[in-house]
Amino acid sequence: GSSWSYIGPDGERMWPKKYPFCGGVFQSPIDFHNDILQYDSTLLPIKLEGYDVPFTEEFVLTNNGHSVQMSLSPTMSVGSLLSKYSAAQLHLHWGNQKKQEGSEHTVGGRHFAAELHIVHYNSDKYPDFQTASDKADGLAVLAVLIEIGSFNPSYEKIFSHFQEVKYKDEKTLIPGFNVQGLLPDQLDEYYRYEGSLTTPPCYPSVLWTVFRKPVQISEKQLLDLETALYSTQSNDPAPLEMVNNFRRVQEFEERLVSVSFRQ
Ligand SMILES: NS(=O)(=O)c1cc(-c2ccccc2)cc(-c2ccccc2)c1
Ligand SMILES: [Zn+2]
């Protein structure tokens, strides 16, 4: 919850003053457009291990003032990368009910409605995600682009708890469920590049995997996401809605994004 925001005097243009990496190299998110994409036949389908978490286990859902995040169990991991990356947490980025374009990554200059990030850390090399978070090979984030369409029962397992975490620092418990249900059914088609945390401290420590295929949630589910949460604590006399919590796309010069698919 430290002193940064997406709007006003602590907004993203000011981030580099307190968080120097935010003005540095390899910053995320970026726009995916044809002339920076390069097919890479060595990119394997993403393998998920331990994502089907039994309902006897519990996830902690927290309003951290910038997003809504769900802690994940370290038995969840991503295979098919050079090291084993164990899950730390997931969270979302979104717009507002008047401008439903809150994804962080864009495709051909177009925003999707929202974006899910599942953050993993290199558990082969580092004891926990805090230690890993500023190391070049420390983090791997799986990103899912979200568009409006049919109702999504997997996202509803999280969204149905929003009323319990309306305000900053509120937490609630969610029974385990198959987190793979939050991802598209095609894990073999994705964009891959080396980037950064999209929030302060913006460490250039993230191997990004952005799935090509978006998932769908209903108009009502998106409205819940855009209207249920506040960035401020429950007793704050000046409540602030948690909206537009996405960073603008960053300059991406002289670099290419690898893609696992041919156009
Ligand atoms: N958007 S992101 O994926 O780059 C991201 C990663 C992590 C993160 C999580 C675990 C380990 C290390 C880094 C935390 C945030 C975050 C979002 C809202 C408020 C504060 C922090 C965001
Ligand atoms: Zn994120």
Give the overall silhouette.
globular
Summarize the biggest pleated sheet.
13 strands, mixed
**What's the total number of strands?**
16
- What's the rounded overall pLDDT mean? 97
Q: Specify the helix fraction band.
A: under 10%
Q: Low-confidence segments, ≥5 residues, pLDDT <50? A: none
**Rg calculated over all Cα atoms:** 17 Å
Distance between the termini: 40 Å
Order of helices and strands: HEEEEEEEEEEHEHEEEEHE
Q: Which ligands are bound?
A: 3,5-diphenylbenzenesulfonamide, zinc ion
Structural class: mainly beta
What would you say this structure looks like, in words?
The protein starts with 14 loop residues before the first helix and ends with a strand. The strands form 2 sheets. Strands 2, 3, 4, 5, 6, 7, 10, 11, 12, 13, 14, 15 and 16 form a 13-stranded mixed beta sheet that branches. The chain has a 3-stranded mixed beta sheet with strand order 1-8-9, with no helix packed on it. The chain has 263 residues and is mainly β. A hairpin with a 2-residue loop joins strand 8 (106-107) and strand 9. The chain has helices at residues 15-18, 129-132, 153-159, 219-227; strands at residues 31-32, 37-39, 48-49, 58-63, 68-71, 77-78, 85-94, 106-107, 110-111, 114-122, 139-148, 171-175, 190-195, 206-211, 215-217, 257-259. Helices cover 9% and strands 29% of the residues. Zinc ion binds at residues 91, 93, 117, 198.
